[in-house]
């Protein structure tokens, strides 16, 4: 299979998986926000300052959007899963939260231009391909007003698994590049896609495409996108970047 065709399949499977399990968000899956995430969200809000308009990219079921709303901001949430957006709208109905709207949109499809005071992308970039990753960071920069603030996380939990996963995927004939963790995706996907209860965490994670760039590569892409790093640090599973548009 050619890489472009395979990537299209990986994206479709990820969307179907999140659509399938979306009704369980806010119910069976916990809604607590990890301590380091809370810390960086507060730093982000301090940098943004007065109430403005925030883009919540890869918003999922809206877990972090309440914090943005409580700080007085208007919020635009985007996600490629319509099921997850439906769950977010149920939790934040328009009649109660007119300052919040959700749109079905992949991050690589953004066309915003200097519309936002801040952008968040929390625990979502790992499902994007290496071809799209720098494009998405440039899209965030373009979406921000001059001096706007971007907070995003990079999943670095699988760094020790990448070499073995890469070699296994190549032996399977998959058109992979280093950093992709995909050797169990199709097998695990077939097991979980018809489940009505949430599968164990490891099985759920292995059923969806992941890409783990090096942190140095992310820093280089940020520089190319016109974003300056204000603060960064590691927490449980994720590395956090707080950046500002030049």
The assigned structural class equals alpha/beta
% residues in beta strands: 15-25%
Give the C-level CATH assignment of the domain at 31-156 and 215-245.
Alpha Beta
The unreliable regions are none
Determine the mean pLDDT.
95
The total count of helices amounts to 9
Task: Give a short account of the largest sheet.
Answer: 7 strands, mixed
Q: Mind telling me the C-alpha Rg? A: 18 Å
Model description:
The structure is a single chain. This protein is of the alpha/beta class. The chain has a domain of 157 residues: Vaccinia Virus protein VP39 (Rossmann fold, 3-Layer(aba) Sandwich), CATH 3.40.50.150. 38% of the residues lie in helices and 22% in strands. The protein is built from 9 helices and 9 strands. The strands form 2 sheets. It has a 7-stranded mixed β-sheet with strand order 3-2-1-4-5-9-8, with helices on both faces. Strand 2, helix 4 and strand 3 form a beta-alpha-beta unit. Helix 5 packs across helix 9. The longest helix has 19 residues. The chain is globular and about 55 Å long. The model has no long low-confidence stretch (mean pLDDT 95).
């Amino acid at each position: 299979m050619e890489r472009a065709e395979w990537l299209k399949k990986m994206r479709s499977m990820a969307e179907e998986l999140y659509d399938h399990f979306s009704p369980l968000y806010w119910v069976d899956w916990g809604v607590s926000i990890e301590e380091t995430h809370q810390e960086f969200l507060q730093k982000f809000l301090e940098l943004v300052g007065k109430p403005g308009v925030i883009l919540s990219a890869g918003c999922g079921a809206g877990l972090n959007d309440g914090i943005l709303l409580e700080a007085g901001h208007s919020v635009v949430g985007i996600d490629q899963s319509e099921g997850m957006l439906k769950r977010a709208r149920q939790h934040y109905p328009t009649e109660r939260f007119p300052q919040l709207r959700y749109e079905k949109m992949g991050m690589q499809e953004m066309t915003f231009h200097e519309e936002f005071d801040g952008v968040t992308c929390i625990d979502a970039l790992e499902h994007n391909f290496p071809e799209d990753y720098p494009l998405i960071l440039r899209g965030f920069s373009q979406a921000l007003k001059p001096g706007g603030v971007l907070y995003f996380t990079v999943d670095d939990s699988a760094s020790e698994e990448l070499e073995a996963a890469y070699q296994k995927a190549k032996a399977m004939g998959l058109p992979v590049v280093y950093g992709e963790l995909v050797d169990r995706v199709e097998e695990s996907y077939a097991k979980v896609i018809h489940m009505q209860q949430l599968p164990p965490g490891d099985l759920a994670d292995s059923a969806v495409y992941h890409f783990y760039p090096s942190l140095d590569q992310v820093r280089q892409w940020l520089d190319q996108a016109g974003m300056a790093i204000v603060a960064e640090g590691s927490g449980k599973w994720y590395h956090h970047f707080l950046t500002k548009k030049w």
